[in-house]
Design brief:
Arc Repressor Mutant, subunit A; 20% strand; alpha/beta; 9 helices; Rossmann fold; 41% helix; 4-stranded antiparallel β-sheet; 5-stranded parallel β-sheet; 2 domains
Length: 245
Amino acid sequence: MCKYSVIRLVMDHHQIASQLKGLSLLYIEDDPEIQGYIAEFLGRYTSDLHLAQSAEEGMELYKSIQPDIILLDINLPGKSGLEFARELRRDDHSTRIIISTAYTDQDFLITAVELELTRYLIKPITSKELTEALLKALKENQVLKPLQTVDLGEGFSYEKQSKTLLHNKQKIDLRRKELQLLEYFISNSHRTLPYEVLQYEVWKDDPMSKDAIRAQIRNLRKKTHPKLISNINAVGYKFYEKGAE
């Protein structure tokens, strides 16, 4: 057995799998052999597992899939795992991060607290340690991203944890940017949002014209209802508030 592989212990896999079912997990590790062993173990608990072998590749995947949990090796080619975590934490304090490392010094412990890490695991990782870390991440996820259904009116609703738009309990497919835009409006339903804010917060470094933003909002209205997002003349947009009609 590879010395870096997960050391398997007897445990109730079915019970743990039922708890972790439905969570998405991103695993970033540059050693293919280590990644293969641990990915096989993680595959027991989630069918939504994504793999990357560098921080740069991992960041691209993170942006596209928005995982619930990230398992991250500290030593990566190019940008380190800590640099990845720092970059992510600038905007995201919800996604849970578990770091694997060979370090146990006090400076790293302080860094782990600063980056709001769920846990750091010292190599070689045991299955018990990894499972406990995943369950801890799950509990934190439930606190920070509670299972909550947002009533959007006209029979539409949005389930935050599963990132699902529903109409009378039937799933409505959204493109990635439509999903991000909807979630941003939901999180800022108390605000009127100018074009400039939407550009900076949703599209980041990808410049979008006002016409392109209008087109995305039209798409959301077509998939939901016209009152979901209201135009505020010469200002921007305001999200639907149930009971405000």
